[in-house]
Design brief:
Oligomer: single chain
Number of helices: 10
Strand content: 25-35%
Radius of gyration: 25 Å
Largest sheet: 10 strands, mixed
Structural class: alpha+beta
Number of strands: 12
Helix content: 25-40%
Length: 350
């Protein structure tokens, strides 16, 4: 108990003394107990002052979790001289029953289907050398209840372009509700990190491998590292001469990721009968308004000749392929951390 209280002193300005005392008892019980973690179970493993009602009151308090997590990280973990990455991801945790707040039906990548669960979106800072992730912002995703609306018949429109319509400019990007929520979380988190910890890269999975996500990341002065679809259309920049008539060409030859040009080959690795060819170059995609730094990893089974590939990309055109592959691999640290039941319970999500 004294050791836990000493660690909790860093968040003393953020919570009341009562909440601090309750938190110390809850943490001690969670670290000591075995089996399923419930509020009743926590109360049975606490010392004096940890009754069931006390545990209930603790979990009903609204606390500034973002500031609490950042205070822990800044005072106890942060090493200013080392490099950190910002990783964002949605984690789905299966839940039974209907009493848990925010429980709904979410798609789980583990079960490969929609399951009763809670969904959590988290930002974590990943220490590159130690290869450890530290959550600094965790938000539960709650699906809004949509009232049933009567279907309106679609109005039929005549063929062709309507009279008086003008060409639409593509200067602005409209973010969907999911990206708007993530953008507000990102801005709030970066305001805490400003002047203390410089962050250059944001890593997110293939769900965010699109232009709106990349645009949102660049607006925050960060570079995105993510994954494109395996069937993404990629083009070389046009290298020919402009003939002086019409608009200058932007897109060159379409790239076949299974038949990349040898000049883009960076490394070949052969292990256990699998040959991995790694390519890197700057390519274009029609959905993006700027060029992408693309890394293609093509795996070939030397016996069966079967092939599979992964396409990573970054908005930073200068980052080399080894660093991009290593950074994207570190993205999985956030799932290892947040899927632990005790971590979810301490954060009030269990």
């Amino acid at each position: 108990m004294p050791e836990i209280l000493a660690l909790l002193q860093v968040i003393q300005p953020l919570v009341s003394k009562t909440t601090l005392r309750q938190m110390s008892r809850v943490i001690q019980a969670i670290l000591s107990m075995t089996g399923r973690i419930t509020m009743l179970g926590i109360s049975r493993w606490t010392e004096a002052g940890g009754r069931y009602r006390t545990v209930q009151r603790f979990y009903h308090n609204e606390m500034p979790w973002r500031e609490i997590l950042w205070s822990f990280f800044k005072n106890l973990i942060l090493k200013i001289a080392d490099e950190y990455l910002l990783v964002g991801d949605e984690v789905v945790v299966d839940k039974a029953g209907k009493d848990t707040y925010g429980v709904g039906r979410f798609f789980s990548s583990i079960y490969q289907r929609v399951i009763p669960a809670i969904s959590i979106f988290a930002f974590s800072l990943v220490h590159v050398k130690e290869r450890q992730s530290y959550p600094v912002q965790v938000t539960q995703i709650v699906k809004p209840e949509k009232p049933a609306e009567p279907k309106k018949p679609k109005e039929k429109r005549a063929r062709g372009r309507p009279k008086g319509s003008k060409n639409k400019t593509s200067q602005g990007v409209v973010l969907n509700a999911e990206l708007q929520r993530i953008q507000s979380m990102l801005q709030a988190l970066l305001s805490l990190l400003a002047g203390i910890l410089p962050i250059q890269y944001l890593l997110m999975d293939g769900h965010f491998g699109n232009f709106p996500s990349a645009w949102m990341t660049r607006q925050a002065n960060l570079h995105l590292i993510s994954k494109l679809r395996t069937n993404a259309s990629l083009y070389e920049p046009f290298a020919g001469k402009h003939k002086g008539v019409g608009r200058p060409a932007k897109y060159g030859d379409k790239m076949d990721v299974r038949k990349m040009k040898k000049k883009y080959l960076k490394e070949t690795i052969i292990a256990e009968g699998i040959q991995t060819d790694i390519y890197q170059t700057t390519l274009l995609n029609r959905e993006f308004q700027f060029p992408l730094n693309v890394v293609v990893m093509l795996k070939t089974n030397l016996s069966s000749k079967a092939q599979a590939h992964v396409i990573l990309f970054s908005t930073d055109l200068a980052v080399e392929y080894k660093k991009m592959i290593d950074f994207y691999g570190l993205r999985f640290q956030i799932e290892f951390r947040l899927r632990r039941p005790r971590c979810q319970t301490v954060l009030g999500l269990g």
